[in-house]
Amino acid sequence: MSAQQGEADRNTFTTSAVLVVLLPIAVAVGIYLFGAHHTPRYNNALFGEHGNAAVELKAQLSTALLGLALIQLGLALWMYGRVPGARSAPRPVRRGHRALGFLAFLFSLPIAHHCLTTYGIETTSPRAAIHSFAGCVLYGAFVAKVIVVRSRRLPGRLLPAMGALLVLGVALLWYTAALWALNGDSAPGFSSV
């Protein structure tokens, strides 16, 4: 390898590393700024439902999204050979994982849109603040995962880390909102105020 090729490889790695850090932060901050400066519209509809019915629907959709995220986790563990007693994952599992991830992302968009335009960024309680900030970070983490998937220069261990971060983000968002709504405005660790 020539010195010029080595320098080009280092520059490409540096660019990828900067992108994987700065672009996700920009996305998360952009979502936060929109939510913080957006006037909430509490009468927004979600698929024709308003008020408590919209909250109930969003909780049900979020529960389905959590299920998709857990399936994604199972498929990823299988692909990385981390499922005891399972043979190596065939190629269709990889394609299925990628397609299911894309569908989960699309599935999350109406939920996130309703949260952001109906409530914006709320810091009125620890639960609402955690939910608001986790929602911003989730989409930044998604951007980071896409960058890592597309990059051939970044360390391979970043991919499972980004996937795990996405699953944890979905679970945290579900815990701080869907569980709360489905459990009568109550979740372990948060007061019902």
TrEMBL record:
InterPro entries linked to this entry: DUF6529 (IPR045382)
Name of the molecule in the record: DUF6529 family protein
Domain of life of the organism encoding this protein: Bacteria
Key word rRNA-binding present: no
Pfam families the record matches: DUF6529
Membrane-crossing residue ranges in chain numbering: 12-34, 61-80, 100-122, 128-149, 161-182
Signal peptide location: none
UniProt keyword annotations, A-Z: Membrane, Transmembrane, Transmembrane helix
Keyword DNA-binding: no
